[in-house]
Amino acid sequence: MSVVHRIQATGLEHLPGKPPYILVANHTSHLDTPALLSVLPRPIRRRTYPLAAHDTFFTTHARALLATKLLNVLPLRRQHADRNAIATLRQRIVEDELVLIVFPEGTRGDGSAIKPFRAGIGMLVAGTDVPVVPCRLRGCEQALPKGKLLPKPTPLSLAIGKPDQFSDSTMDKEGWLSIAMALYAAVDEL
To answer: Are 131 and 165 in contact (CB under 8 A)?
Structure first.
């Protein structure tokens, strides 16, 4: 990433010193996850799990193998997420001291504007002390647009904001939506 895409990251000082924490970012390309992983310290990368769409990355055994072995991806069902699965993931983040990468838009955008964040991110962090770090990626949609298999050398930038916690948020739809809107605003501001 630093050689081919000359990624420039600002705000690295905002990353918590140790897990657990969650990185939330805008989503425009399949290059977004490698870009975020590239700026993390090597010991942290091994504890980092990007959440990815089950219906995209886990449709065949070969795709699932690539996603899990190359990027440490955890599958997530975008529609009708199982509350038990979310509860288990909330517990694992803390107990196993993980870093998660989450793209709360739920799908890749075109880079022109960030799509509204879905309530699932709120469901994941409401009532927890897990820091959530807003991140804004730029350039990934030009480097690897939808429908392309190979990236082209393009400068990328990553802005990392100050982490926030949502321990006082309510564990209901209103609380989840409030968190999603707050994180959307934080990423959009970057």
So the answer is: yes
Tokens of 57: 């990355």
Closest CA to 23 of 132, 146, 118, 111: 132
Q: Is-cis flag, bond preceding 20, omega within 30?
A: yes
Chunked into runs of 10 residues, the chain (190 residues) has average pLDDT values of 81 96 95 93 91 64 63 66 78 94 87 88 95 96 87 93 96 95 97
Hey, what are 39's tokens?
A: 């700026």
**Beta-bridge partners for 136:** 159
CA-to-CA distance for 125 and 102, rounded, in angstroms? Answer: 11
Dihedrals phi, psi of 116, to nearest 5 degrees: -55, 145
Q: Say how far residue 65 (Cα) sits from the centre of its chain.
A: 20
Q: How far apart are CA 176 and CA 118, in angstroms?
A: 9
